[in-house]
Amino acid sequence: MSTTGEKILGRLLTLGQFGHASGIYFRTPFTAAETAAVDRVREWMREAGLSVRRDAVGNVIGRVEGRDPAAKVVATGSHLDSVRDGGVFDGPLGVVAGIEAVAQLLADRGTPARPVEVIAFTGEEGSRFPMGLLGSRMMAGLLAPEEAVAILDREGVPVGEALAQAGLDPARLDRVARGDLACMVELHIEQGPLLERSGVAVGVVETIVGIHGFQAVVTGQADHAGTTPLGMRADALLGAAEIVLALPELVRPSGGVVTVGQLDVAPGSSNVVPGRVLFSVDLRHASPAELGRLAARIRGEADAIAERRGLRLEWHTRQVTTPVATDPALRARIQRAADALGFPWRSMPSGAGHDAMAIAARCPVAMIFTPCRGGFSHRPDEFADAAMIDPGFAVLKRLLADLAWE
């Protein structure tokens, strides 16, 4: 007998067909791959009985009206974009599961008391434009339209131009922000190993970590690799390497995490001393105070290393988000739903950022985690089978019934 989890899994694999090129999976905002995924999601939303619209920043919104026309919206959903060479579960699970939950509730219980929306946010990953949570920030009113349209991708294409190329109207960005959301709950794979290793079916997220994202530029002097003595060099790569190696040791005692995932060496010739190195720094912690302290310490230590080596170091802020606590009342509802359904659960933080953390500026939010195989995420073998998906889906469905149909 087929389960709901198997249906959701099949749809996730279908969406995973949109974004494969040059041997990798990569679906970014305002591209043909995203358009194909959006079209399929719209189709599923309409089949479920939802009316569908796409706002000016590209968020896809499926809606069913409630019996109370004055009531605020109960929302669920996640995102459709991916990281480069990532997996097909991160983001789309929350969209596909939300559609299926609303479809089943409409079939079982008819019109809800309050309006319900399933939202597929755009640009959560920041994989095309150097800002994550693009669609959810706009919906939460955290990003002004004039700022949004000017953000450039790596090819120098601004958001405004990319929107127009995708058939969206950047002049309507001032209509994206919402004031009618009652709450939002996001279902997501854990992206870590704790649930699977502990044999727990459902994660109840307490806090979404804050993220400080920087771009550091180390500048030295490009010189001939054969004729410049080692003691007379200003090698930007050696300075950058010392900084990169120091970062984990600075952060480790705090319980936070830090990652350098991008490194660009110039001029990039084997017989030239590197004169300029650009690298990324991704710093995360669940405590706002600790996150700020660590960011300052990293910069201070890195500046000292650069000065000692006779190098110039510049910092450019790419992203600053503060940790977000989920709503205690919604967490309690999730726990009660899991108990009623007989699923073991555990409270836990989220080490990844999510659209819910932006939407929290407008309404209470909650997150439900499902296990994923090996805890793998942001890589091609990211996977959750039907048995992993079913409990989280069942809890989401019961929670939506509690919030919108009761």
Task: Give a quick precis of the structure.
By secondary structure, the chain is α+β, with helices and mostly antiparallel strands. It contains twelve helices and 16 strands. The chain folds into two domains: 4-208 and 324-405, Aminopeptidase (3-Layer(aba) Sandwich), CATH 3.40.630; 210-321, 2-Layer Sandwich (Alpha-Beta Plaits).
The separation of the N and C termini measures 30 Å
- The number of strands is 16
Largest sheet: 9 strands, mixed
Structural class designation: alpha+beta
CATH superfamily assignment of the largest domain?
Answer: Zn peptidases
Q: Would you identify the regions where 5 or more consecutive residues have pLDDT less than 50? A: none
Quickly give the CATH architecture of the largest domain.
Answer: 3-Layer(aba) Sandwich
The proportion of residues in beta strands is: 15-25%
Rough outline: globular
What is the top-level CATH class of the largest domain? Alpha Beta
Helix fraction bin:
25-40%
The number of distinct structural domains comes to 2
Average of pLDDT:
96
What does this structure look like?
By secondary structure, this protein is α+β, with helices and mostly antiparallel strands. The protein folds into two domains: 4-208 and 324-405, 3-Layer(aba) Sandwich (Aminopeptidase); 210-321, Alpha-Beta Plaits. It has twelve helices and 16 strands. Strands 3, 4, 5, 6, 7, 8, 14, 15 and 16 form a nine-stranded mixed beta sheet that branches. Strands 9, 10, 11, 12 and 13 form a five-stranded antiparallel beta sheet that branches. α3 (92-109) links the parallel β5 and β6. α2 runs parallel beside α3, α3 packs across α12 and α8 (236-251) runs antiparallel to α9. The longest helix is centred in the C-terminal third of the chain and has 21 residues, at 288-308. The radius of gyration is 23 Å and the shape is globular. The two termini are 30 Å apart. The model has no long low-confidence stretch (mean pLDDT 96).
